[in-house]
């Protein structure tokens, strides 16, 4: 079932999203060569607690951590690990969900450890722009397929990267994952029609090689690229409004403005 949120519910989700965005901003100073991915987990847990929020991922389908910390060829759902020490040039994705008094927000952001190589820098830029191209299609009257089609065209046809299919965006609130599914591939004009008050995530995962995922890890969670290629991800929670999409997990309105509406 697709739920349409009231202005009050959206306001509460925006508060949740601001906490999540603040955590991501804080990670800019934390992520550096020599820390472990567990240090990221500890920072997130402490930040959420200090801001009166709960890490909603803990306990979800048996998951034990507040964050997913996925490095280099890991597509998503990487466990934070004390023995995984980050080194110069690593590409790190940090994905987490916040519950603030029952209001959910979901966001993933990618970080480079130290200085990015040209390959990583370009992958991050393309993935981030793909996210915002998808957000730009999230308008009343458009369809879910319009979001996926523009992302797939930009990622695959225009840049020659892989557009991961196995993991997709989704509706959110009052639970973590709800309808509708929001693929980052597809056909324009197809799928569920977007309505005012819908809250969804858009979260493209882009690889430098094959788009397929290897799910053979014995922990049953972490997904990797089948060919060892790099993967990048950016994700925002948004609400569909009569005035266009509103980002509820924005880290900086100026960053959003840099990418949104360029093609209008």
UniProtKB/TrEMBL annotation:
<feature type="binding site">
    <location>
        <position position="77"/>
    </location>
    <ligand>
        <name>substrate</name>
    </ligand>
</feature>
<dbReference type="InterPro" id="IPR001714">
    <property type="entry name" value="Pept_M24_MAP"/>
</dbReference>
<keyword id="KW-0378">Hydrolase</keyword>
<dbReference type="InterPro" id="IPR000994">
    <property type="entry name" value="Pept_M24"/>
</dbReference>
<comment type="function">
    <text>Removes the N-terminal methionine from nascent proteins. The N-terminal methionine is often cleaved when the second residue in the primary sequence is small and uncharged (Met-Ala-, Cys, Gly, Pro, Ser, Thr, or Val). Requires deformylation of the N(alpha)-formylated initiator methionine before it can be hydrolyzed.</text>
</comment>
<feature type="binding site">
    <location>
        <position position="106"/>
    </location>
    <ligand>
        <name>a divalent metal cation 1</name>
    </ligand>
</feature>
<feature type="binding site">
    <location>
        <position position="235"/>
    </location>
    <ligand>
        <name>a divalent metal cation 1</name>
    </ligand>
</feature>
<dbReference type="GO" id="GO:0005829">
    <property type="term" value="C:cytosol"/>
</dbReference>
<comment type="subunit">
    <text>Monomer.</text>
</comment>
<dbReference type="GO" id="GO:0006508">
    <property type="term" value="P:proteolysis"/>
</dbReference>
<feature type="binding site">
    <location>
        <position position="170"/>
    </location>
    <ligand>
        <name>a divalent metal cation 2</name>
    </ligand>
</feature>
<dbReference type="GO" id="GO:0004239">
    <property type="term" value="F:initiator methionyl aminopeptidase activity"/>
</dbReference>
<dbReference type="GO" id="GO:0070006">
    <property type="term" value="F:metalloaminopeptidase activity"/>
</dbReference>
<dbReference type="InterPro" id="IPR036005">
    <property type="entry name" value="Creatinase/aminopeptidase-like"/>
</dbReference>
<comment type="similarity">
    <text>Belongs to the peptidase M24A family. Methionine aminopeptidase type 1 subfamily.</text>
</comment>
<feature type="binding site">
    <location>
        <position position="177"/>
    </location>
    <ligand>
        <name>substrate</name>
    </ligand>
</feature>
<protein>
    <recommendedName>
        <fullName>Methionine aminopeptidase</fullName>
        <ecNumber>3.4.11.18</ecNumber>
    </recommendedName>
</protein>
<keyword id="KW-0645">Protease</keyword>
<dbReference type="GO" id="GO:0046872">
    <property type="term" value="F:metal ion binding"/>
</dbReference>
<keyword id="KW-0031">Aminopeptidase</keyword>
<feature type="binding site">
    <location>
        <position position="203"/>
    </location>
    <ligand>
        <name>a divalent metal cation 2</name>
    </ligand>
</feature>
<dbReference type="Pfam" id="PF00557">
    <property type="entry name" value="Peptidase_M24"/>
</dbReference>
<keyword id="KW-0479">Metal-binding</keyword>
<dbReference type="InterPro" id="IPR002467">
    <property type="entry name" value="Pept_M24A_MAP1"/>
</dbReference>
<feature type="binding site">
    <location>
        <position position="106"/>
    </location>
    <ligand>
        <name>a divalent metal cation 2</name>
    </ligand>
</feature>
<feature type="binding site">
    <location>
        <position position="95"/>
    </location>
    <ligand>
        <name>a divalent metal cation 1</name>
    </ligand>
</feature>
<feature type="domain" description="Peptidase M24">
    <location>
        <begin position="11"/>
        <end position="242"/>
    </location>
</feature>
<feature type="binding site">
    <location>
        <position position="235"/>
    </location>
    <ligand>
        <name>a divalent metal cation 2</name>
    </ligand>
</feature>
